[in-house]
Amino acid sequence: MILFNEDQRYFLLEGDGFSYLLGLSPQGDPHHLHWGAPLAADPLMNLLVDWRTRSSETSPHVTMEHQRREFPDFGHNDLRAPAYHLEQTDGSRVSEFVYAGHEIVPGKPDFTPLPSSYAEEGDEAQTLKLLLFDRLKNLELELHYSLYPRRNILVRRNVLRNRGGGPLHILKLMSAGLDFPAGDYRLVRFPGGWANERRMQQGPLLQGLTRLESRRGISSHDMNPFAMVTRGEADERRGEVYGFALAYSGNWAMEAEVHRTGWLRFHAGLNDFDFKWRLEPGETFVTPECVMAYSGCGFGPLSRSYHRFARERVARGRWRDRARPTLINNWEATYFDFNQGDILRIAEAGKEAGVETVVLDDGWFGERDGDDRSLGDWFENAKKLPKGLKGLSGDIHALGLKFGLWIEPEMISPRSRLYEAHPDWCLHVPGRERKTSRSQLVLDMSRPEIRDHLLETIGKVLEEAQVDYVKWDMNRSLFEVGNEALPPGRQMELSHRYMLGVYDLMGRFNQRFPHILFEGCAGGGGRFDLGLLSYHPQIWTSDNSDGLDRLFIQYGTSFAYPPIAQGAHIAASPNHITKRGTPLKWRALVALSGNFGLEVDISKWSAGEREEVAGYVRLYKEIRPLVQFGDFHRLESPYDSDRTAWMFVDDRKEEALLFVFQVKPWKKGVKAKPVRLQGLDPAKAYKVQGVKTGFSGKKLMKEGWLPKPFRNPKKPYLCELYRLKSKV
Ligand code: DGJ
After folding, report:
1. Between 448-464 and 494-512, two packed helices, what is the crossing angle to 10 degrees?
2. How far is the C-alpha of 495 from the C-alpha of 486, rounded, in Å?
3. Residue 463 neighbours by CB under 8 Å, 6+ apart
4. What is the pLDDT of residues 479-535, one digit of tens each?
5. How far is CA 185 from CA 22, 68, 69, in A?
6. CA atoms within 13 A on the CB side of 404
7. C-alpha 435 to ligand 1 mean position (Å)
8. Distance (Å, whole) CA 299 – CA 237
9. What confidence tens digit (pLDDT) does each residue in 24-78 have?
10. Which of 89, 341, 499, 642 is the most exposed place for a label (fewest CB within 10 A)?
11. How do 277-279 and 201-204 pair as beta strands?
12. How far is the CA of 406 from the centre of ligand 1 (A)?
């Protein structure tokens, strides 16, 4: 519920699990008063009295810097980082937006193609549109707060309208911002690199500015656009945690500034680096959205709020609520070196193992025998596929399998027919050398005629080959970002226009092919964010399919993103990237914890191994509803010890899956501790498949359970999956 108290001029946004309170200062500046545990009447009154005293203080020493603000401007006496920075027609950058009215509306406005989470049931969300007005310049800034009271989610974004007589330049406009009260704050972030995504890192926030960002044109492998602030120490079950997840796949930034007072200012939104947007009179600019969540009981509940939200109100379309098929992908098995026969052989072996979809990865088009050519030439390679894609797809469909295809629409190889025909279609700076990365250039997705061409050419392939699944890849960062289409004064708009173009094209593909399941990919997980998930309901988590590294990568990814969204495949051992060997069972259990598939030519494996794999595929089909739609609980972190454990529980707490991974045996003399389970019904009794004794949910959660093999593990890479059922 969102309430406005007219007498005292405050807004109270009340969810089941948190309250968010903001007040209007006598001057009309929105002040941040509280975000955290639900407020009872007395604490609310105390907060208001406190704030009133501070905000009405007239001493010349009390500046705006001594107020906790909601969306701070630039140019007055608050010299902390501003939430926006606007260059006006007369060159001034000083803004003065004050309260000019508000609306509280049911549901949530949509700003597609910018990724927008949505509301479905009548009263599930409410939006406060807080209108601020800069009278001198005739500018309107609308702060949007969409509250999902039962989901513990608050989504913020802003809309700026130029009602003035001249153009305005936006130098910075964040999506969300607030000033936390004094405290001992820590920041949890998810940095990494290619094949090493979303490694969890946490540390104290000290006085000064900490900035997380991507300047790479993609949300990036290097830093994920999701972060958490904790007040003091937090763990899975304890502590106050605040989450910020940007629904954006391009350049983004988050700023955490600890002021000398101990207050913490936090902003999240578009990166202002190399950004400048010209807003003509009458035009509107909308920011990406920031999905915020709060938990008073540690990381676990916060992650589950995000998981459910991403699954149910970010993902869209026919595949949102459907079980995702198991698949076999040829990439790590063949790279570019395959022919029709190889793919059919892999398909047949996949079918024998029980998988449902065969995905033909990179290399099927143009003269693509290596990564240095043919991107953009979206017609099949007749040498590799003499019966054509249509023939191959027909054979695969005849096996009773679905057919999936890899594409990389946003790219162009200098060695391609497309480049010969349209050398100006790539991002480039006129007169400068065009430097490639992975031998490829980037198509200028801001240009509608290029998007139309892609929809037409790739659309034709998807139609003719009756494709059921698409892996949409994107294998490089953006640099030399320029074009001849935009005037010089608008060149700094290009990175954002690129992303808007990508979203537009993805949306048109989804509309034209509603039956196709799209999987996102950017050299593995280089664009793993809520923006992409609103177009592609699942993403290839990482190019690193090594069983041990994947444990860390999937663990880190799970803080914001649900297991159903994480492509997780069994690959060969030793691994193609790390060269490390891990047992098949280990790789399988890691893959069974996500959106399961195979990334290997199992036709070359022994009969015994193929049988083992078939067993995992069968098992996945049985546990799929729980893994893909159940609640996920991290029990033990791979960062804290040599053992990791996580579990899945269904809505009714009747079924659960417990995964335990022991990387190394315990050191001599160290006694193994029981694994403490979560999410069960304390009042229910549970039976663990294959274990004689039953347990009460209360005991499993309070005291824990140490499965026999983990009491004294002798071998490395010991792992088990336990299936729990409540006894009726
Ligand atoms: C990067 C992806 O992450 C891989 O899975 C594979 O599709 C290659 N690109 C193909 O070029």
Report:
1. 30
2. 12
3. none
4. 999 999 999 999 999 999 999 999 999 999 999 999 999 999 999 999 999 999 999
5. 21, 16, 18
6. 26
7. 21
8. 7
9. 999 999 999 999 999 999 999 999 999 988 877 666 667 889 899 999 999 999 9
10. 341
11. unpaired
12. 9
pLDDT, greater one: 61 or 379? 379
What is the DSSP annotation of 486-549?
S-GGGGGGHHHHHHHHHHHHHHHHHHH-TTPEEEE-BTTBTT-SHHHHTT-SEEE--S---HHH
Amino acid at 461: V
What are the chain's domains? 72-314 (2.70.98.60), 327-629 (3.20.20.70), 635-726 (2.60.40.1180)
> 319 to each of 115, 360, 363, 564, 569, how far by Cα in Å?
17, 20, 27, 11, 20
- pLDDT for the residue 57: 65
Question: Full-prediction pTM beyond 0.70?
Answer: yes
Q: Give the residue numbers annotated as catalytic, written as ranges.
A: 473, 543
Three-point CA angle 201, 204, 206, nearest 5°: 130
Distance CA 550, CA 717 (A): 13
* Two tokens, residue 716: 């490395």
Question: What pairs with residue 566 in β-bridges?
Answer: 539
Name the token pair of 660: 């335990």
Rounded distance between C-alpha atoms, residue 488 and residue 577, angstroms:
43
User: How crowded is residue 124: how many other Cβ atoms within 10 Å of its Cβ?
Assistant: 18
What's the number of CA atoms in the CB half-sphere (13 Å) around residue 310?
36
Mutate to test the pocket of ligand 1, among 196, 221, 330, 331 (most ligand atoms within 8 A of CB): 331
User: Using the 8-state DSSP alphabet, how is residue 604 labeled?
Assistant: G
Averaged pLDDT, 263-288: 98
How many helices and strands in the chain, by DSSP H and E? 13, 36
Ligand 1 residue neighbourhood (C-beta within 6 Å): 331, 361-362, 406, 473, 475, 521, 523-524, 540, 543
Q: Which atom of ligand 1 is nearest to the CA of 524?
A: 3
Q: Is 174 within 8 Å of 269 (Cβ atoms)?
A: yes
Compute the distance from residue 195 Cα to the ligand 1 centre, in Å: 11
The position carrying tokens 């709020």 is: 305
Find the length of the chain. Answer: 728
Q: Are the C-beta atoms of 65 and 257 separated by less than 8 Å?
A: no
* Span between the terminal Cα atoms of the chain, in Å: 38
Tokens representing 530 are: 């809520």
Question: Could you tell me which residues come within 8 angstroms of residue 518 by beta carbon, excluding any fewer than 6 positions away?
Answer: 469, 470, 472, 506, 509, 510, 535, 536, 537
Q: Average pLDDT, stretch 4-27?
A: 96
Say which DSSP state 182 is in: S
